[in-house]
Amino acid sequence: MKKLLTAMILLGLLGSFTLSAQATPQQDLAEFRDYFKNRFPKTPFNDYINGVYSIDAASREQWEEIEEFPPYELSISKGEELFNKPFANGKGYADCFPNGGIGIAERYPFFDSKSGKVITLESAINTCRQSNGEEPLGWQKGAIADVSAYMHYTSRGNIINVQVPNDPAALAAYERGKNHFYAKRGQLNMACADCHVYNSGNKIRADLLSPALGHVSHFPVYRSKWGGMGTLHRRYGGCNKQVRAKPYPPQSDEYRTLEYFTSYMSNGLESNGPGARK
Ligand code: HEC
Predict the structure, then answer these.
(1) Pocket residues for ligand 1 (CB within 6 Å)?
(2) Biggest alpha carbon–alpha carbon distance for the chain
(3) Looking at beta carbons, which pairs linking 221-228 to residues 24 or more positions away fall under 8 Å?
(4) pLDDT class for 3, splitting at 50, 70, 90?
(5) Rounded to the nearest 5 degrees, what angle is found at the Cα of 161, between the Cα atoms of 241 and 110?
(6) Which of 97, 152, 221, 272 could form a disulfide with 101 if both were Cys (CB 3.0 to 4.6 A apart)?
(7) Which residues touch 65 (CB under 8 Å, ≥6 apart)?
(8) Does 14 score more than 50 pLDDT?
(9) What is the tens place of the pLDDT at every residue in 115-162?
């Protein structure tokens, strides 16, 4: 704890950039991109999909070696098998999604005006199961990550283009996610933005902090630390815990809106999930 605190203090002075409260999502996005363009002038826009490897040549080399025999490959094939296995009622995942669920993962999350909720891909997977009389899957790892990995794999190369429709409830969901991203929390009193915007490219203990631009493009990921696959909300929980804050439940409105905001901030980038990370 003490060590972490010292590391935080050493990380030191925070930048002065914060997205303004009254800005439109479009203005936020332009500012967000500009910030990283100035911070990492050598990183081409589409390379942000590679997280920390987009800004660090040394760790990129190791990662490229890992990508030669990707540790998430097994998850893709398990996911494909699960995806194609009919439910007890004879229907399947393909019946629940547009285009039979193929090449559409990058359309998530979206705001559903009818339910007033942000619909993430994982939430849609479990809604599909439940509406067909199947038990929902656990949210953070295992089968849900496999099905999501397969669906994302079929979306590789598609461009992320999350919309905030002209609906006050959608804008409120976006603002809630934005607020989570910039709000200080936990005993260390740090926001997502403190690490992944103002200190991106700096080290915290042994870890180099990735830029938040492109943060969602490659999920779910195989993480060596987890020894397996995990969803984006599993990662959110881990990052909340790092600052000694109580994590929210996966697929809570809080994390769904956080995903909504950070995905919007990754608009224009390629979907490249699943990924591999340390
Ligand atoms: C104390 C610093 C710290 C804070 C605060 C923090 N994170 Fe992280 N986060 C890390 C570290 C360290 C990693 C692993 C290295 C990396 O990829 O940045 C990481 C990784 C991630 C990743 C995976 C990146 C990838 O390329 O796979 C995501 C997504 C993420 N954080 C989101 C968040 C969100 C959202 C918040 C706010 C709820 C947050 N983080 C708060 C330190 C932090």
Answers:
(1) 51-52, 190, 192, 194-196, 204, 207, 209-210, 215, 221, 235-236, 239-240, 242-243, 258, 277
(2) 58
(3) 221/72, 221/273, 221/274, 221/275, 221/276, 221/277, 222/70, 222/71, 222/72, 222/75, 222/274, 222/275, 222/276, 222/277, 223/276, 223/277, 223/278, 224/71, 224/277, 224/278, 225/278, 226/141, 228/141, 228/145
(4) low
(5) 60
(6) 97
(7) none
(8) no
(9) 999 999 999 999 999 999 999 999 999 999 999 999 999 999 999 999
Take residue 97 and report the two structure tokens written for it: 């999604």
d(CA 90, CA 8): 54
Residue whose C-alpha is closest to residue 140's, from 26, 215, 247: 247
- Cβ-contact 238, 278 below 8 angstroms: no
Amino acid in position 46: N
Kindly give the distance from the C-alpha atom of residue 65 to the centroid of ligand 1, in angstroms, as a whole number: 23
At residue 179, what is the residue type? N
Distance between CA atoms of residues 190 and 245, nearest Å: 9
**Are 174 and 261 a contacting pair, CB within 8 Å?**
yes
Place of tokens 């936020």: 28
191 CA → ligand 1 middle, Å = 10
Ligand 1 centroid–CA 167 distance in Å is 30
For the record, the structure tokens of 76 come out as: 């893709």
- Write the residue with the smallest CA distance to atom 38 of ligand 1: 192
For residues 232 and 251, what is the distance between their CA atoms, to the nearest angstrom? 10
CB-CB contact of 146 with 83 (8 Å) = no
Say if residues 278 and 223 touch (Cβ distance below 8 Å): yes
CA distance 35 to 17: 8
